[in-house]
Specification:
The chain is of the alpha/beta class and 354 residues long. It folds into three domains: 59 residues, Alpha-Beta Plaits; 81 residues, 2-Layer Sandwich (GMP Synthetase, Chain A, domain 3); 167 residues, Rossmann fold (3-Layer(aba) Sandwich), CATH 3.40.50. α8 links the parallel β12 and β13. The longest helix has 14 residues. It is globular and about 85 Å long. The termini are far apart. The mean pLDDT is 92. The structure holds S-adenosylmethionine.
Amino acid sequence: MHLKVSRAEAEAAKRMLSKFGMLGKGISVQHRGSYVYFPLSNIDRRKVKKVLEACGASISEMAPRPGKTRDYKGGLESALGADVAHSVDTGYDHLGNIAVIDPDGMTKAQEKVLAKHILAANGAITTVLAKGGPVEGVYRVRKVRHVLGKRTFEARYREHGCVYDFDVRKTFFSARLAYERARIAELARHDRHIIVMFAGIGPFAIQIAKRNWAAKVIAIELNRYACRQMDEEIRLNRTTNVMPVQGDVKKMGGRYDGFADRIVMPLPKTSTRFLDEAFAMARDGCVVHFYSFIKMGGLPQLIGEIREHARLNSCSVKVLFTRTVRNYSAREIEVVVDYRINRIKKARPSRSTA
Ligand SMILES: C[S@@+](CC[C@H](N)C(=O)[O-])C[C@H]1O[C@@H](n2cnc3c(N)ncnc32)[C@H](O)[C@@H]1O
């Protein structure tokens, strides 16, 4: 059994299948016309349904073709030695033409071996970079350095039919949020007024706008480079309904008060500082997608904090959905909480009949 998906969605589908452990090994991936066919194994119906929905894919019963297995892990074990291969992180973040490895615990020579394997295993990757530190600062960027392949920091990354060009040193971008972007774009299909706070180069905003041409999407971003680049991404993706706004969400001065049917808040490190701004920008019934880092088991406390801010803003909230987005560190996870805001109508003072 194969998963049939358009070329534009192939990368995202492959990532999801790998994550779910359902990408068939030892069988060729096939390409026909504008479609890619991924062999499936360990099929879990619910997970398959998720991939079908997120990537607009379908199931195909085409005949399997035995493939040349590139044993990535096995090859690395013999090149690096099993001890090293098991003690360091041999995975990588994949941003189209660029792979970013975590060099923690590796010598420069071992980094090169890993990079060589990545280049050999994935024809789309032409550059391997190494993380040079954590994601940091207000702009949430990370230092990186060149390891092997073409010497560039410019990524061209495709996701769900959208394409993005950006310098990986100058802006935040994470391919790991691909599923969240697809999920929210689907939920926002019938909204009219959407605010994406902390918009970066615009992946949430552009994907929402592409699925919903009638919506007006306001995308607020502090980092000048990211905001300028968002103009470029809008042009590349031929969207006309995203309005980039360069500035601080805290300093919008009431410009968008009561505007939004839906608000996206993808700033997990410090998003709780902006809860009041979201309440101000929301219409009655607005849905908020709120991202945050929490300690394991910290979800009730986070929801309590949201409710407390709701009370202070004369609102109540109904939690619609929560999900762990990813593991962030040994102790912390990133979660998303979707909630609906209801404005509490003040009761009119009753007239005395006495
Ligand atoms: C974690 S990144 C998310 C970027 C983008 N939404 C994405 O998914 O790729 C958070 C972004 O918020 C921006 N940012 C941080 N503080 C901000 C503020 N007060 N107002 C507007 N943007 C801010 C940063 O520059 C950064 O680009």
